[in-house]
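Handout, page 2. Input:
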Amino acid sequence: MLSFVKFIFRRMLLDSDKLRFALPRMFPPSDPKLSAIRMKNFISTYLAWKYGLKLKTKPIILQIEPVRGCNLNCVMCRAGEFKFQKLLFDDFKRIIDNLPEVMFITLNYGGEPFLSKDTIKMIRYAQKKAIIIIFSNFTVLPEPEDIINSGLFEINASIDSFDKEKYNFIRRKNGDINQITDKTILDIKNIVEIIRKGKVDEEFYQKSVRNQIIKNNNEYENGKKDTLEIVIKNLKNLVDTRRKLREKLPIISISSIFAKETKEDVENIIRNAIELGVDRVKFQRLAFDVPGILHVPDTNDFRHIFELKERYKDQIKILIVNSEFGGHYPRGYCYLAHFMILIDINKKIFPCCMPYQHMDTDEAFFGTATSKEDMKIAMEKRQKFIWEIRKLAPNFCIKCPLYFRE
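Output:
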């Protein structure tokens, strides 16, 4: 178990300051009963994962989808094709209140989280109870001070290449941006001010947002603005603001999809990350081929990334995640299936973060988080899934490269 705890600490980049931030949220000293429940659940979950013991467990990691739909339409995601939806704050609050054992919350899935003003509100509420991590395409952000002061533990900028042409090819700009009008949060000072005061004039807000979206979209199409330039500017602004405020959190990371076609971009991503002053780079293995566009990397491709990790180890932290070829992932049966659940925009509960394009949703579906009773039924189904995963694994698990790692 000690090695697994070390794995978690490495993933969290914990030093003494971050530890002082993290521990009270994982094990609140003001609520010793909850802390004891969480500790017991963590130990039980570890033993169930590591040794296959049939112990009762609850999820420790919650991935929740605050927004469905995106202003980009990345080739491996296609979230720009979804109709825009957002999770209401009251629903979010009810979900996490009904999952007291959860210690880590990730905000993302099938859309850009910061397209909803409620996302910052969610972070502020949930950070009192757990460690909050978010992934963003960094095209639209709240004020950097609001992000830094929100209690967020880590923010990941999704950048797969610093080559403008390749970036624009992968993270395409043709999402149905005109659908995104419902309380969208953009970097517009007067709108941010309205949000801060809590006095939202719907007609003014939506008119301002729609005008700004149309203006940005036209500038993108006419070549006056480049998406990558905006992303880099927003990332640099966040790093600089955190430095000015003399804060160490949130951790600022670049998260890159690692595919055969992006192998040649890895070193340039690392160098740009160092220059921008971010804390680390994460290379996420592409889950499945995108036919004719991106392909899953093999052992030789990973050898290249391991060499670069060693070369730059004194300059920046580099993580290799979701890989069956070594890297930062525990050996044995999939720990994500044992430790986490995913709740999507419709409050449906799934066992892991498997991309929605590849998961058999009927086979993977546990239930809904619409009420405390529904949650209880879903958790019972999840418990059965965990107990049977070694002998009766569903097809979506067996097909996944992380199902079992020797």
